């Protein structure tokens, strides 16, 4: 009997540890996006998906220019599929990479610089002033950098806050516009990776990153791949 007692307290103990490791501002009401396949907070080091931004809605987890999702349910008609209806009722505008579409190839086009995965969800229709939060779990405190998978019709800048405080300053997102592409709308689909885009000092445990769109907008943001700075 005695040996079973500690296990009764294990959930409480784990909860206490989790609270102790939280670096989030006490006033923050957003929560991690926890739906399949994303069933735990996103981890660093690792690939952080922009489309799995926090839950909590407009003004808490994100700010978007309009309440309509311009991708899910609009560009991508509601048809019962996971990708077309992803976070359909939220203001952040979401789409995903499409391969082998005819007659014109969309994201696997010849002007893409770094080929993204197929069906990669991303935050699009970005405009200056917009932002979204992503709660992350950092395994080891330290300095990190990240590679951003993105497209950028006009170039632009973003910045990142850590736990409510500015942490990076403006980060330049190089344009992926290529006048050689004869299809005008495809300027939004030239994928690339911005390597070593940032430097962030992160504490161990749970933190919230705020991605701000500063200038130009028109960027599609898919993933930040975080790794320790050597
Ligand atoms: Ca919107
Ligand atoms: Ca938007």
Summarize the structure in short:
The chain is mainly β. The chain has helices at 5-8, 10-20, and strands spanning 42-44, 46-49, 62-63, 72-73, 76-77, 94-96, 121-123, 131-138, 142-152, 156-162, 165-166, 171-173, 192-194, 200-202, 205-215, 219-228.
List keywords for this structure.
230 residues; mainly beta; Jelly Rolls; five-stranded antiparallel beta sheet; 16 strands; 7% helix; 33% strand; globular; disordered N terminus; binds calcium ion; Galactose-bd-like_sf; Carbohydrate binding protein with CBM6 domain; CBM6; signal; carbohydrate binding
Describe this protein's structure:
This protein has 230 residues and is mainly beta. It has one domain (2-228): Galactose-binding domain-like (Jelly Rolls, Sandwich), CATH 2.60.120.260. 7% of the residues lie in helices and 33% in strands. The chain has 2 helices and 16 strands. The chain has helices spanning 5-8, 10-20; strands spanning 42-44, 46-49, 62-63, 72-73, 76-77, 94-96, 121-123, 131-138, 142-152, 156-162, 165-166, 171-173, 192-194, 200-202, 205-215, 219-228. Strands 1, 3, 8, 10, 11, 12 and 15 form a 7-stranded mixed β-sheet that branches. Strand 10 (156-162) and strand 11 form a beta hairpin. The longest helix is centred in the first third of the chain and has 11 residues, at 10-20. The protein is globular, with a radius of gyration of 19 Å. The site of one calcium ion has 7 residues, from loops. One calcium ion (CA) is lined by residues 64, 66, 68-70, 91, 93. This is Carbohydrate binding protein with CBM6 domain. GO terms for molecular function: carbohydrate binding. Residues 87-227 form the CBM6 domain. Residues 1-20 form the signal peptide. Keywords: Signal.
């Amino acid at each position: 009997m005695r040996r079973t007692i500690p296990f009764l307290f294990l959930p409480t103990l784990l909860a206490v540890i989790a609270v102790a490791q939280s670096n989030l501002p006490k006033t923050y009401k957003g929560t991690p996006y926890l739906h399949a396949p994303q069933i735990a907070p996103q981890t660093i080091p690792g690939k952080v998906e922009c489309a799995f931004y926090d839950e909590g809605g407009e003004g808490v987890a994100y700010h978007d220019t309009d309440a309509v999702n311009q991708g899910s349910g609009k560009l991508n008609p509601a048809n019962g599929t996971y990708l077309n209806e992803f976070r359909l009722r939220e203001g952040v505008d979401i789409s995903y990479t499409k391969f082998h579409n005819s007659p014109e190839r969309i994201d696997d086009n010849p002007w893409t610089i770094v080929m993204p995965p197929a069906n990669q969800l991303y935050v699009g229709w970005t405009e200056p002033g917009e932002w979204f939060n992503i709660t992350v779990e950092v395994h080891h405190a330290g300095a990190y950098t990240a590679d951003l998978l993105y497209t950028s019709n006009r170039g632009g800048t973003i910045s990142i806050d850590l736990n409510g405080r500015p942490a990076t300053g403006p980060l330049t997102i190089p344009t992926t516009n290529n006048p050689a592409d004869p299809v005008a709308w495809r300027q939004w689909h030239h994928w690339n990776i911005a390597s070593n885009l940032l430097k962030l000092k992160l504490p161990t445990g749970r933190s919230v990153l705020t991605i701000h769109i500063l200038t130009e907008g028109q960027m599609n943001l898919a993933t930040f791949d975080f790794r320790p700075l050597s």
